[in-house]
Amino acid sequence: MKFGRGARALGTILSLAAPVYGTAQAQSVIKIGVPVGLSGANSVVAPSVVQAGQLAVAEINAHGGILGKQVEFAVADDGSGADGAVKAFNALLFQQNANAIITMETSAARNAGLPVVSRGKVPFIYTSYYEGRSCSPYLFVDAWVPDQQVAPIVDYFLKEKNAKTFYLVGSDYAFGRGMLGFTRKYIEAHGGRVLGEEYLPMDASDWTSVISKLRAAHPDALISSTAGGAPNVTLTKQLRAAGVDVPFGNLAVDEGTAKAIGADAAGVYISQSYLTTLDNPKNKAFIAALQKMFGSDFKIPNDLSEPEYDSVYLYKAAIERAGSLDTEKVLKALPTVSFDGPRGTITMDKEHHAPLTMYLGQVQQDGSVKVIQSFKNVDPGDQCPKLK
Fold it and tell me: What is the phi/psi pair of residue 249, to 5°?
């Protein structure tokens, strides 16, 4: 995986074989550990996640750091899966002495990493949208859950497209099944009917059998939930090649991946908390700063990368409110702080999750996303009631 000059200059890109840093260095800086899928399913989106985090760290360091300490951004490849995550989390926490984990990962990687975080006793801010209801005293989430994301697409199909029957397609792991399980219940509770629900492994690239079953069922609409990145590309391209032409809502495609898919993504409906087209000064400044920092290596920000930027600032705010790097103090501070960024004001105060403004959009021929509807400060619902 190649990173640009900004990555080399402003972030520490680590492999699992990277040199071990001693305790003295760990105490002289505040180190953010970033296990992320530089390889595997998330490799399409991981570079944009790293860039967003590096920008936040560069800005913070340029203004004096946090509590007078410079911030270091330490990245390890988790391979987008559970086994790689265990190795990456262990390397970052017990060899690199990271003070916190802030990252976007697959749900499989997150679930595998959580026990390591519990042993390491550090804050873990998860910046990826996911299937919801992952709870730990150490875990905070600044991205959307099904309770915030599914309704805009399903309601639009039911009311505006007169869809009565649906077909669901996903990747066979926690995110795919969790998202579509919630979607099925929502569809059926609102008068729709699910004709079929099909899953393939996370690394699957041939959707022929699933598409054959889909075509035979003749649904009014299709909703998919695949692992972010590569599976979105293969499924969408194969659906188009097969001539499938029904309203298609993708619960997992981000704006950057939609552009990578190209013309085949045109017409797909998405529901997101961040789009590059958001017309506010903070978003314009964010995009301009990324372009300046990374130049020709600039990756399009998206709903899997922008939350990384927000979360680094949320961690900074929590440390400053706590006045310390002490884990217990920072954990108590995290739900009490906010950051006003490209998505607006983000606060992880609802059972370690965040109310978010959501946007229903449709991908256009040039890969841009046209906003159809917006929904202000959508509540994440009951995610972790025991953490109240």
Answer: -105, 125
146-272+358-387: same fold as 5-144+278-354? yes
**pTM to 2 decimal places:** 0.89
Pairwise CA distance, residues 116 & 368, whole Å: 39
Average pLDDT of the chain to the nearest whole number: 91
How far is the CA of 126 from the CAs of 14, 97, 107, 110, 183, in angstroms? 20, 19, 10, 8, 22
The alpha carbons of the chain give a radius of gyration, in whole angstroms, of: 20
Per-residue pLDDT band at 127 (split at 50, 70, 90): very high
Q: Which two tokens stand for residue 362?
A: 């449709």
Which residues are 353's β-sheet partners?
A: 350
Q: Where are the domains of the chain?
A: 5-144+278-354, 146-272+358-387
Interatomic CA distance for residues 85 and 279, integer angstroms = 36
Helix (H, G, I), strand (E, B), or coil: what is residue 361?
Answer: strand
Task: Provide the 10 A C-beta neighbour count for residue 243.
Answer: 8
In this prediction, residue 259 has a pLDDT band, given cuts at 50, 70 and 90, of confident
Q: What is the mean pLDDT of residues 261-285?
A: 94
The CATH architecture to which 146-272+358-387 belongs is 3-Layer(aba) Sandwich (3.40)
Between the alpha carbon of residue 244 and those of residues 144, 171, 264, 359, the distances in Å are 29, 19, 11, 25
Task: Report the C-alpha gap between 49 and 167 in whole angstroms.
Answer: 31
Classify domain 5-144+278-354 at the CATH topology level.
Rossmann fold (3.40.50)
Alpha-carbon dihedral angle through residues 232, 343, 34, 43, given to the nearest 10 degrees: 20
Query: Which residues are within 8 A (CB) of 150 and not within 5 positions of it... i.e. 6 or more apart?
Result: 179, 182, 183, 186, 251, 271
Is residue 369 within 8 Å of 339, Cβ to Cβ? no
If we measure between CA atoms, which residue out of 309, 243, 284 comes closest to residue 48?
309
Three-state SS for 306?
helix
Token pair for 334: 């995290």
Tokens standing for residue 215: 């075509």
Residues 6 or more apart whose Cβ sits within 8 Å of residue 29: 69, 70, 71, 72
Please state, in angstroms and rounded to a whole number, the distance separating the CA atoms of residues 310 and 140: 13
